[in-house]
Design goal:
It is built from 5 helices and no strands. It is mainly α. It has a domain of 48 residues: Arc Repressor Mutant, subunit A, CATH 1.10.10.60. The N and C termini lie far apart (39 Å).
Length: 103
């Protein structure tokens, strides 16, 4: 209730969709919502996304790889739902999975 929703209606829509995917049952709980914490620049640097150099390409690849793996875990391997969660097309997800060696 106190979250400021700095984005637009699309942010709210995406947050609800993610919560539905992450929910164990039929009721959404507070734990199913991340409220903008999923990828901040500081948290990515803490996770080592940019610690070896200042290459944006390498940092983007590490982040993309991790987020794809997390989406697949959250959707129990369902690629269609993972693509929707990541807001990319299914063919794009398959291409990125091949690129990162994700089976």
């Amino acid at each position: 209730m106190r979250y400021g929703w700095p984005g637009n209606v699309r942010e709210l829509e995406n947050a609800i969709e993610r919560a539905i995917v992450l929910a164990d049952g039929t009721t959404l709980e507070i734990e199913n919502f991340s409220f903008g914490k999923e990828s901040t620049p500081d948290s990515e640097l803490e996770d080592g996304a940019g610690s070896d150099c200042l290459s944006l390409k390498k940092a983007k690849s590490k982040l993309e790889n991790r987020m794809i793996r997390e989406a697949l875990t959250a959707t129990e391997g369902n690629r269609t739902h993972a693509a929707r969660l990541l807001e990319i097309s299914h063919p794009s997800l398959l291409s990125k999975m091949k690129l990162y060696g994700i089976v």
